[in-house]
Design goal:
By secondary structure, this protein is an alpha/beta fold. Helix content is about 30%, strand content about 15%. It is built from 7 helices and 7 strands, in the order E-H-E-E-H-E-H-E-E-H-E-H-H-H. The chain has a 7-stranded mixed β-sheet, covered by helices on one side. The radius of gyration is 17 Å and the shape is globular. The chain starts with a strand and ends with a helix.
């Protein structure tokens, strides 16, 4: 029994993926973010989650989240918001974001199988020093609150917080978050048939790639 949580923002120009501007326009960045979120929903659709939660910052819920319980994000920093999300869970739970559209059900499959007795948490590091996935056997927001977010050492600090609390952590593969345009090209190449890659290609990827060199 595992709850799947996706944390996301409404994909409005100027609110999401602003570090992709330039070379993308704010409107293009928002469209790419929406494609990333759609790919994420599609990738995890086959996972046998007992509950699906969308922790949402926005008003218009994506159509792909029709089977999700939509929970508004609380006010505060990202650590407070993540902590509150886990506090709302009553069974093992895994949280992922909308910034890794290359994610697959296979990558997360171990979290949805019976957890080994010596595993209390699963942790998916991100290439930029953050993390893309966090699963807790016993959800506890205090394991996250107070960890500095959006830094190059966020992942290391979060992992240390878990281990200091005595949790036995199993690692998931490292993935690339889409923060900058170079990340977008890297991720699109990994999943060339996804909506993310197709949307990026529609912007004239070769020209954009040349503009970043």
């Amino acid at each position: 029994m595992t709850t799947l949580i996706v944390i996301a923002k409404e994909c409005l120009p100027g609110r999401v993926k602003t570090r992709l501007h330039p070379p993308l326009s704010l409107e293009q960045a928002a469209r790419l973010a929406a494609a990333s979120l759609d790919d994420t929903f599609a990738a995890v659709a086959a996972l046998p989650a007992t509950r699906r939660v969308l922790a949402f910052d926005g008003t218009v819920v994506p159509a792909a989240a029709a089977e999700y319980d939509v929970v508004p994000q609380v006010d505060g920093g990202l650590d407070a918001r993540l902590g509150a999300i886990f506090d709302g869970c009553t069974e093992p739970a895994v949280l992922i974001g909308m910034d890794t559209p290359q994610v697959t059900a296979e990558l997360l499959a171990p979290v949805f199988q019976p957890w080994p007795d010596d595993v209390d948490a699963w942790f998916g590091p991100a290439a930029d020093g953050g993390f893309w996935a966090l699963a807790l056997r016993i959800p506890d927001g205090d394991l996250i609150r107070g960890v500095p977010m959006s830094r190059s050492d966020t992942g290391a600090r979060q992992l240390q917080r878990l281990r200091t609390a005595g949790l036995r952590v199993r690692m998931l593969p490292t993935l690339t978050d889409v923060d900058h345009i170079e990340d977008a090209f890297t991720v699109a190449a990994l999943s060339p048939r996804g909506s993310f890659a197709q949307t990026l290609a529609g912007f004239g990827a070769l020209q954009l790639s040349g503009a970043t060199r």
